[in-house]
Structures are given as C-alpha cells and as structure tokens.
Amino acid sequence: MKWAGGPSGRLRLLDQSLLPARVRWLTCRHPREVFSAIRMLRVRGAPAIGVAAGYAMVLAARRCSTLARLGREGAVLAGARPTAVNLSWAVKRMLALRTLDAAALLREARAIHAEDADACRRIGLAGLPLLRGAVLTHCNAGSLATGGIGTALAAVYEALRRGRAPRVFSCETRPLFQGARLTAWELSRAGADVTLLVDAAAAGLLASGTIGSVWVGADRIASNGDTANKVGTYAHALAARANGVPFYVAAPRSTFDPSIRTGREIRIEQRGAEEVLAPLGRRAAPRGVPAWNPAFDITPARLITAFVTEAGVLRPPFGPAIRRILNTGSR
User: Fold this and answer.
1) Given 116, 199, 219, 226, which residue is catalytic?
2) Residue ranges of the chain with pLDDT lower than 70?
C-alpha cells in the first residue's frame, strides 16, 4: 500500500481480491472506502490491516469536527474484521494522539507503516536459522499481508536475498484461495521455488518427511500463546505434531493481545456462506444447502514450537516470554 501526497493525500491499495488475474490499485479518499476494502478482503493480513487502519484514521480526521466523532469513526473501522487485533490496535494508537490534525496523524500512520516493515525484517533475521529443508505454509503471510516482507515468509525472503532457495509448499487455503492466488503469486514473482497443494493434502505431505518446518502468521495471539490464524491452521499444527515437524508462528508484537488469557476469548469472524457454496463466484454446491464458514480457527499453544517475533524467538513456556517482550517493547 502507498500513501500519496501529504496530509490532504489519499491511500492507494493493491486490490488483492483480483489477483492473480488482474493487478488494480484502489484509491481511497474516505475512511469508509478503507473499511470496505478491509471487509471485502481487498486488503488483508493482520499487519497490513493495521497499517491501512492508521491511514484510514487520517482520512477520517479530515471529516470530523470533534474527537468524539473521530472515535466513532474508529469504532466502525475496528469492526470491519474483529479477529485481527492489529486493526483495533492501530485505531487505538491513532486515537491516543487526541488530535484532529491530519499532519500529526499522518506522521503516526507512517510510523506504524515503517515499524511494521522493520518488524518484518527482524522477524526474517530471527527466523532464518530455523529454516531447515522445505517449508509448508498456509494462507498468505508475505509482503501482501504486511507493510514489509511478511511474517511467515520473512525468513524465506531473507534466504532468497542470501542466494538460498528453500522450497515452499503453499496450501491453497479454502474457501478464498489466498495461498493459491496470493502466496504462490508473490513467491513466484520473487523467483522462489513454490509448489501448490490442496489443504487436505498437507497431512500426507508432512507424513512423507518432505517438510522441514511449518510456518504460519497470526491474526491474534492470547497471553498464553493460543493463536488465531486462517481456518485450517489448527489441522496443520496437529499433523505437524503427529509427525515431529516444527510448527512456527511468525508475528510482530502488535499481534499479541495481553487482554485475553486464552484462545477461548478470541472472537472468530464468521463470513458469508457464498464463499464456500460458490467459491470465486462459481457455484459448487446445491442451492438450499447451508455452509459453516469461520474465517479463523485457534491453534493451542501446546502445538506451537516457537513464536518468531521482531524481539527474537519465543519458546515455551510462552506466558512469561510473551509478557517479557510486551513489557520491554513498544506497542
């Protein structure tokens, strides 16, 4: 994403809903346009949503006459995708300035963007020593999902920068195919060795001994390490544990939510049935059949080998490790 111009400028977003068939940039001049882009997955990935929210608050401030009105705009924006904690985190950070000055808000939004890019780089450096053999990943946690080089894919990009070429197996990620449409697209453009597989084939692949480690991102992490990520992640974690394969969650500090104790407290976003019944707009099920479509599931902390953050690698017990990085780092 890009901010064009100064305090009176606009936000430009790559429309991820059209990839890989078409590359189109959206121009947002109103906060509700950013809300729609987030809700409709034109921009997605927890860190990227947080960055977009920061810029959306700049757009909102230009239309608000009071801080109370700006707060209401922020509340609407934060409700676009309730599971991703980075969204509400960024809105709260912008509101904490207690100003309607667009220039001051733009400086803060740009700081959020720059901090995320730096966090991604640090995650990549921290994760690089853990990269062994082929990688399995789920959904998209690369450059499209962040303000930098990604979270789960950051170590892969760092390896590529050093002339290494780790093989990446990308699960297609039903029902919206983020792994097929986004991860495979960005990795192939970067010159990576990427292979696509259906989600249900991951367990068999893990059992085959082909995969050295599983890498995923996160949308919200509880204080005990329970992690919300794209639906299907839990199944991959179970299969990884059954086959002795390390399972890594890569995420910045802003994705950890100390206000919740366990994953049971994480609100799981439920999306429309048509995403399952008519994937990519083509009907695949009989009319009249319902669908259950949670956007995320919860992976228990006990199945996670380590968290890879910009503050380093966190290993069990996760509670004290998470408290330490949140107490020593800025949020």
Assistant:
1) 219
2) 329-331
